[in-house]
């Protein structure tokens, strides 16, 4: 690594509460960079999928193997010289610590917005049922990333294009 410039990332974790725009921004960011895009939910073990389908909330015990599976995939992809954008709510610091696992080439992108704005976007979102109260509980759980996590924080009160520009500018990234 040279001087104080951080290592070029191989994985970006796009995090935030439900409805903050993780899927939308991760897709668009990956397309702009020419990187792979993954939905973190894809890495849930079958037991978690069954639990969620039955409407039962996951415990942190359920989440550890899921988060480790994403961390393993990050290691695998980076070792293979691939670049990936991963959408994952990662609301708590302990979750992010598993995902990042000390790698300085894995960066957190935090989608920051008010509950009011996100509630309006969720109400307008098609094809998704959102139980009332879920957003409130997401905000209660959210631990915004601290400065020592070196996050890229972007306001979601902007167009998708502006948000993606903002992320690319903050990370000093170019299309690869
Ligand atoms: N910058 C934006 N401007 C306007 N609408 C947006 C913006 N970003 C996302 N949206 C819309 O807000 C809604 C929520 O976005 P999205 O589904 O990407 O959120 P999410 O964080 O992936 O949610 P979940 O955690 O439930 O998967 C969608 O209808 C999306 O089209
Ligand atoms: Mg999503």
What this model shows, in words?
With 176 residues, the chain is an alpha/beta fold. Helices cover 44% and strands 14% of the residues. The chain has helices at 22-33, 46-53, 60-79, 93-100, 115-124, 134-141, 160-171; strands at 11-15, 36-39, 84-87, 106-112, 152-155. The longest helix is centred in the middle third of the chain and has 20 residues, at 60-79. The model is unreliable at 1-5 (pLDDT under 50). It binds adenosine-5'-triphosphate and magnesium ion. Adenosine-5'-triphosphate binds at residues 16, 18-24, 87, 89, 121, 125, 156, 159-160, 163.
Q: What is the strand content?
A: 5-15%
| Strand arrangement, major sheet | 2-3-1-4-5
Q: What's the N-to-C terminus distance? A: 19 Å
Unreliable stretches covering 5 or more consecutive residues: 1-5
Rg, alpha carbons: 16 Å
Tally of alpha and pi helices:
7
Number of strands: 5
- Write the element-wise H/E pattern from the N-terminal end onward: EHEHHEHEHHEH
Structural shape:
globular
Q: Structural class from helices and strands?
A: alpha/beta
Helix content: 40-55%
Mean pLDDT: 93
Describe the sheet with the most strands: 5 strands, parallel
What ligands can be seen in this structure? adenosine-5'-triphosphate, magnesium ion
């Amino acid at each position: 690594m040279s001087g104080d410039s951080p290592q070029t990332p191989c994985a970006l974790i796009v995090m935030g509460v439900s409805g903050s725009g993780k899927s939308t921004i991760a897709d668009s960011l990956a397309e702009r960079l020419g990187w792979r895009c993954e939905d973190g939910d894809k890495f849930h073990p079958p037991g978690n999928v069954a639990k969620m389908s039955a409407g039962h909330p996951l415990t942190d015990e359920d989440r550890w193997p899921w988060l480790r599976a994403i961390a393993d995939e990050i290691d695998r992809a980076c070792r293979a010289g691939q670049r990936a954008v991963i959408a994952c709510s990662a609301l708590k610091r302990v979750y992010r610590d598993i995902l990042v696992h000390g790698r300085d080439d894995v960066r957190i992108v935090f989608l920051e917005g008010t509950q009011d704005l996100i509630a309006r976007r969720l109400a307008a979102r098609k094809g998704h049922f959102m139980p009332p109260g879920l957003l409130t509980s997401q905000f209660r759980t959210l631990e915004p990333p601290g400065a020592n996590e070196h996050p890229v924080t972007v306001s979601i009160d902007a167009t998708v294009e502006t948000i993606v520009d903002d992320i690319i500018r903050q990370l000093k990234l170019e299309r690869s």
